[in-house]
Design brief:
Elements lengths: L9 E6 L11 E4 L7 E8 L5 E4 L8 H4 L1 E2 L4 E10 L2 E4 L4
Antiparallel strand pairs: 1-6, 2-3, 2-6, 3-4, 4-5, 6-7
Length: about 90
């Protein structure tokens, strides 16, 4: 798999709210306690309504180690990123 984002890329975030909810396939920003924000793809929901997390790149942390993210941890969806002089949209899978 080719990674969607590389170290040093900048991301424009669209916050989730009343009319925009997280969906499977979104590249989302996840905030957990005092740790740095994670940017991961949202997978299927488990029985408790949490989303599984996965990375797009071969070097990404395995999904089994990332665990799940609750709706309260998911801040928003990454909609585009800037890498050098190029700007690209980030789509859902």
């Amino acid at each position: 798999m080719v990674p969607t984002l590389d170290d040093g890329d900048h991301v424009l975030l669209k916050r989730y709210g009343r009319f925009h909810r997280p969906r499977q396939g979104d590249v989302a920003c996840i905030r957990r306690c005092d740790a740095p924000m994670l940017i991961k793809r949202l997978g299927a929901r488990d029985g408790q309504g949490r989303f599984g997390l996965s990375g797009d790149g071969a070097a990404s942390t395995p999904a089994i180690d990332l665990g799940y993210a609750s709706g309260q941890e998911i801040v928003g969806r990454a909609v585009l990123y800037v890498c050098g002089s190029s700007i690209r949209l980030i789509g859902r899978h």
